[in-house]
Amino acid sequence: MLPTAQQYWRDLLHGFEEPTTLTPQRQVRRPGTVHAASVAWDPAQTAQLTAAAGRLGLRAEDLVVAAWGLLLAVQAGADDVVHGALVDGDTTEPVPVRVRPVPARLLSAHLRDAAEQYAANVRHAGVPASQLPHSTSLVRCGRPVPDPADLVLLQADLAGPGGRLRLSAPADLLTEADVRLLLVHASQLLAAVAAAPVTARLRDVGPQSGFERHRAVRQWNATTTGREAGRCIHELFERQAALTPDAVAVLQGADRLTYAQLDAAADRLARRLAAAGVGPGDFVALHLSRTVQTVVALLGVLKAGAAYAPVDAAQPVERIRGLLRTLRVPVVLTDPAALPTVHAVTEAVPAVREVLWLGAPGLGPDDTWALAEPAADAPAPRRAVDTDVAYVIFTSGSTGTPKGVVLTHAPVVNLIDWVNETHAVGPADRVLFVTSLGFDLSVYDVFGVLAAGGSIRVASDAEVRDPQRLLTVLDSEPITFWDSAPAALQQLEPLFALRAATTASRLRLVFLSGDWVPLTLPDAVRGAFPGCEIVALGGATEAAIWSNSFPVGAVDPAWTSVPYGRPIANAHYYVLDAALRPAPVGAPGDLFIGGDCLALGYHGDAELTAAKFVPDHLSGRPGARLYRTGDRARYWADGTIEFLGRQDQQVKVRGFRIELGEVEAALATLPGIATAVAAVHGARADAQLVAYVVPEPGVYPDPRDIREHVATLLPAYMVPAHVMTLDELPVTANGKLDRRALPEPGDDGPARPPYVAPSTAAEKAIAATWAELLGVDQVGLDDNFFDLGGHSLLITQLIARLKATLEIDVPVRAVLDHQTAGAFAAVVEAALIAELSAPADAAV
Asked: What InterPro entries does the annotation carry (predicted)?
């Protein structure tokens, strides 16, 4: 049987999983140095604290211990913290104290329980730290301690008529400014505890002053900007079309439309849709490849008063059918070549009344041409108003079902106005349109640029898949504006150094959003395109594309990531603690978005909408809402927001938003799988989705078969790069899944074929390059690039290496079409032969 003291500590610390840590606002590396600050209390303050303690039957020192634990919970952004405490005369060494604050609980009850726990901990003191269930040495308080250079140390001297608080911390943990601010908050929290009425609850007592709360709620959200009311997204285009009818609006190669031509085509489509009974309240599905007709479709649907719903043709058929059923789509717009496929998909969806095709006349059946003039007596399009729905974009859902985010016109118009005014977007600008319609960046690329009188260069499907071709477009065409997730632009980065120096590029503005911006990327882009402005943006599909921004100048070496920035016009941002109060500067909290940028909610899911869009208790505006993003963030001292990552099971992998629950639901449909979880391994650009499956007894699944099965249910970006088979899932002491204990992907990834050694020079070169790039010991001719952990960013690096070492240009498509080392080596060998024979051919 365990000794009594050890059993006590085991019970007290049961389920405590993470040591309490404080994170500095800047990276600091000054080992051996201690920052310290102190503040004096006047006699009245000390007397008030002592009186408050007396009313509860406690000592003033007990309130100091309790308040310090509450402050650490707020400052660490945690609801379960452990710190050390020592009161003179109680023990000679700090004892661990566990704090689990509940915002709705009475403050007095919490203080009494904290004091009782501390007293019990003192009675059981003396157990060596090495024998405690968890390390508790990262944050302690009290005095004296054996090695204060290792600790965050709060000292309270309450003897005599006055008092003094002193705080010290190692310089490699907190900056001097951090220490001073933490001490101020400790003093303010103690004062608030002392002055609190008997009915006060924990949520009523915080460490911040009234000024600090006002600054976070009002000053840092002073974004109100007057806007013309009642405008719709397509009306911004119509105004510009009337001003510059002959200017080029959209182009792809030789295919181009002026503003007048685009307006006329969109009007014809609107009339055709109206004749089919489409109007406000309806969704029109867009199952289209990337052409100028895409822009016609977007405008035509909105001119009909309806809303558009992008459908990725590469998604599994059942997923597409599910979206069409959910939205009760009456009409699908597609390409003439895709008509047979779309008809096969929609046969099982009774709501779909018509499938119409877009393109030049004669490419498909006349009766389903989307631009055919309807009968003279057909109903005219009904105009939308700014409160009508403009589009729905589906994102990954934790229940296994995608969730549709529904946006009206008004918040999108607000965003367009802000971008165009802030960044002077105008008729001279041309965007290289590379994003998918299912990614809401596309909304600005089309409607925002057209509202400013600029032009849209639509990248084809083939160009989007080939970083070399995209870079050629940037270098050779008058592109001024790039907008994408960081990963899309990062694919071009390895190619920057391989291109000839150019002064022809007109790229002036780069928007990066949707994921972490690599710290090296801004300077790499500016080096490749001198004078280019880099802007990092953030937000959510639920908050009209972007609702915050940060112009990226010089990258500070102290940054751990590019900052999130500040809210745009008419948007509000709040970093809130567990009690839904503004978190102190530097403290992690939950990120909420408010203001005139929010979506209506989730289509057909009132429960989820109510859970994610909550009443706004901060703005003072009746009926206002806040969107609970699920992100963690913190304030810098100047109000800039730093993004810290997700707090739930939603992750970002190379810009794509993924609910792990949806991946897990797909895995669970495979016969023979008892349970499955998904997780992300790797940091940011190198992040990979990994599946862990526990098979039923006697079942031995092939990881490759599992990936192929999941690929029939989920989009390609949600298919795990690795599948690992486990006998059981790791769990914590309290029985919860321990995601941190899930093994790193390695040899238990997709089953590798028997090793076939390379023999030719090309095969040896490719095997060696793949091994180095993918971090494996050896590569055989039958090994698959993607099964070894390859992804889009690594493809670009591979192409760049071949260009640098072999001086050949191999298209990205070659890797996608020839995924084994042997097949790809044959492509490389053919390219080398062609390169060597080119001079001789030219001389003939």
From this structure: AA_adenyl_dom, ACP-like_sf, AMP-bd_C, AMP-bd_C_sf, AMP-binding_CS, AMP-dep_synth/lig_dom, PKS_PP-bd, PP-bd_ACP
Angle between helices 176-195 and 60-76 (to 10 degrees): 130
185: CB partners within 8 A, 6+ apart:
71, 75, 207, 208, 584
Q: How far is CA 248 from CA 254, 476, 582, 829, in A?
A: 12, 18, 48, 43
3-state SS, residue 389:
strand
Q: What pLDDT, on the 0 to 100 scale, is given for residue 142?
A: 35
| Domains with residue ranges and CATH for the chain | 4-207 (3.30.559.30), 571-644 (2.30.38.10), 650-741 (3.30.300.30), 761-843 (1.10.1200.10)
Per 3-state DSSP, what percentage of the chain is helix, strand, and coil (rounded to 5)? 35, 20, 40
Start-to-end CA span in the chain (Å)? 93
**Alpha-carbon torsion angle 391, 394, 397, 403, nearest 10:** 30
For 762-782, write each residue's pLDDT tens digit: 888 888 888 888 888 889 988
Q: Is the peptide bond before 316 cis (omega within 30 degrees of 0)?
A: no
| Count of residues in the chain | 844
Cross-strand partners of 724: 692
pLDDT class for 680, splitting at 50, 70, 90? confident
pLDDT digit string, tens, across residues 315-361: 888 889 989 999 999 999 999 999 999 999 999 899 999 999 999 88
Three-class DSSP category at 404: strand
Select from 710, 712, 670, 713 the least CA-distant residue to 690: 710
Integer Cα distance of 750 and 706 in angstroms: 9
How much is the average pLDDT of 505-517? 89
Average pLDDT, the chain: 85
Dihedrals φ, ψ of 373, to 5°?
-70, 130
pTM, full prediction: 0.81
Please state, in angstroms and rounded to a whole number, the distance separating the CA atoms of residues 295 and 110.
60
Q: Which residues contact 577 (CB under 8 A, 6 or more apart)?
A: 74, 77, 206, 583, 587, 589, 590
Going by C-alpha positions, the residue among 600, 594, 582 that lies closest to residue 628 is 594
Question: Which of 320, 396, 319 has its CA nearest to residue 656?
Answer: 396
